[in-house]
Amino acid sequence: MSRYHVKSFGCQMNVYDSERMGDLLAGEGHVAVDSPDNADIVVLNTCHIRERAAEKLYSDIGRLRKPRADGSRPVIVAAGCVAQAEGAEIGRRAPAVDVIVGPLAYHRLPDLLREAAAIPEDARGARWGRAIDTDMPASPKFDHLPPRRHQGASAFLTVQEGCDKFCTFCVVPYTRGGETSRPQADLVAEAHTLVAAGAVEITLIGQNVNAYDGGSAGTDSLPGLIARLAEIPGLKRIRYTTSHPRDMTQGLIDAHARIPKLMPYLHLPVQSGSSRILKAMNRAHTRESYLATLAQLRAVRPDIALSGDFIVGFPGETEQDFQDTLDIVAEVGYAQAYSFKYSQRPGTPAATMADQVPEPVKEERLARLQAAITAGAYEFNKASVGRITEILLERPGRKPGQLIGKTPWLQSAVVEIPGAKIGDLIAVQITQGQPNSVEASPLQAERAAA
Ligand code: 5AD
Ligand code: SF4
Q1: Which UniProt keywords apply (predicted)?
Q2: Do the beta carbons of residue 230 and residue 262 sit within 8 Å?
């Protein structure tokens, strides 16, 4: 029996995968610990989306390979998208790594640990020999994973993986392979397991979650799945992320009007407000088509909160293109958004395009964009004051007696409710908007006081 720690970098898909690697290790009799410092096995579940994210693997290995006070060092597993993209190269650059496993092969983690343990130690600084699996197997890993052990009010459920879109900046089609969907019946079963263990909210996740097509049958789509899951009595909230503008079908838009459990929130990355740049990014949508999709959504669900991703400094981006991005932020009124400096990723078409934007220009544009996004989020939070709604309590607040929950619009809401506990859904009124959160007061307490 060993103590293990899984460290997750990057996206929510990795959070799900990290949890599942934990399920596999727990199934082998190992025990989870909160810190890598007292673990015998450390899994680094990495992200390759931007250069800085990828570099974190190597700095963590540097720390982990140093012998501890008692002379021991952990078995090091490099998992996730850096493992997939750089494979055996990781072994050359960081010889202390014992296991290298890609995101589509991690169901083999226990086997790989046994394989590595059977290879005699050498002078590399690794504890064992090295086992590698970065295959993209035809048989999906999901068929080989143990039941979920997840406990808690909110859970992720991976419904789809991979990407066929090939945006010219992005590594995902290379690290996660093509789009594949899990069969609807498997997802309904997994959702029942989660709800039985206390989940009241499930977020359906996928690199292109709205390209979900029910797996090999190819007949059912994301709105069909959402409607099935909405029938589970104990499940109160359904979310999904991340969507591609190209796959926002009328059926999915209508689901926001039809299915009350589907939360009024949509993360729909636009990347740029300039149609010229969107074309160079191979995004398959324009500024106008994106705005038209949002108008359709708002027609059926006027209160929907919108979120997005932006890249500044894509090759060839002019000040005018960037102004178009600032304009779209103002026009949409995002509830929140994520923004990044363009990062050249090896093997992607944009990495070798002419007119790479100098770093200081990227930095200056990012600062302006982030100021606009922050101001927009503050406006959104202020505009929600007075709303009567429910929040799902997630964690303790900073001050004693405070709890933090999520509104349907995914705002963090701070409340004080004596007797309430994490996982409760409680009725509140939003009383104040802050830059990154809202304050709320419980409805019953207010009535009692009146
Ligand atoms: N550089 C910067 N940001 C990127 N993203 C994806 N690839 C890159 C890159 N090469 C951003 C996109 C995507 C989010 C997950 O990461 O905005 O939506
Ligand atoms: Fe990357 Fe584009 Fe696919 Fe999103 S849609 S994962 S940005 S290639």
Answers
A1: 4Fe-4S, Cytoplasm, Iron, Iron-sulfur, Metal-binding, S-adenosyl-L-methionine, Transferase, tRNA processing
A2: yes
Check whether residue 229 and residue 327 sit in a common domain: no
284 belongs to a structural domain? no
| Block residue for tokens 């990154």 | 436
What are the tens digits of pLDDT across the range 166-179?
A: 999 999 999 999 99
* pLDDT, tens digit (0-9, with 9 covering 90-100), for 216-236: 555 689 999 999 999 999 999
Quote the CA–CA distance of 312 and 319 in Å, as a whole number.
10
Alpha carbon nearest to ligand 2 atom 2, residue = 167
Ligand 1 atom nearest to 339, measured from its CA: 17
> Do 9 and 78 sit in the same domain of this protein?
yes
Are residues 421 and 325 both part of a single domain? no
**406 and 321 inside one domain:** no
User: Which ligand 2 atom minimizes the distance to the CA of 166?
Assistant: 8
21 and 125 housed in the same domain? yes
The Å distance, Cα 396 to ligand 1 centre, comes to 32
- The 10s digit of each residue's pLDDT in 203-221 is 999 999 999 998 655 568 9
Q: Is 181 annotated as a binding residue?
A: no
User: Ligand nearest 348 Cα, by number?
Assistant: 1
Q: What is the CATH number of the domain that holds 326?
A: 3.30.750.200
Structure tokens at 96: 């202390």
Do 361 and 428 belong together in one domain? no
Confidence of residue 449 (pLDDT cuts 50, 70, 90): very low
Secondary structure of residue 55 in the 3-state scheme: helix
> Could you give the angle at the alpha carbon of 269 between the alpha carbons of 213 and 12, nearest 5°?
65
Round to whole Å and give the CA distance between 66 and 287: 50
Give the pair of three-digit tokens for residue 265: 């929130």
For ligand 2, say whether the CB of 170 is within 6 Å of any of its atoms.
Answer: yes
Q: How many domains does the chain have?
A: 4
Sign of the C-alpha dihedral, residues 252, 253, 258, 263?
positive
Closest CA to 214 of 179, 246, 244, 238: 179
State the closest ligand 2 atom to the C-alpha of 176, by its place in the atom list counted from 1: 6
State the alpha helices, DSSP H only, in 219-339: 222-230, 250-258, 275-280, 287-300, 319-332
Nearest to 183 by CA among 205, 227, 213: 213
Same domain membership, residue 307 and residue 243:
no
CA distance 208 to 13: 11
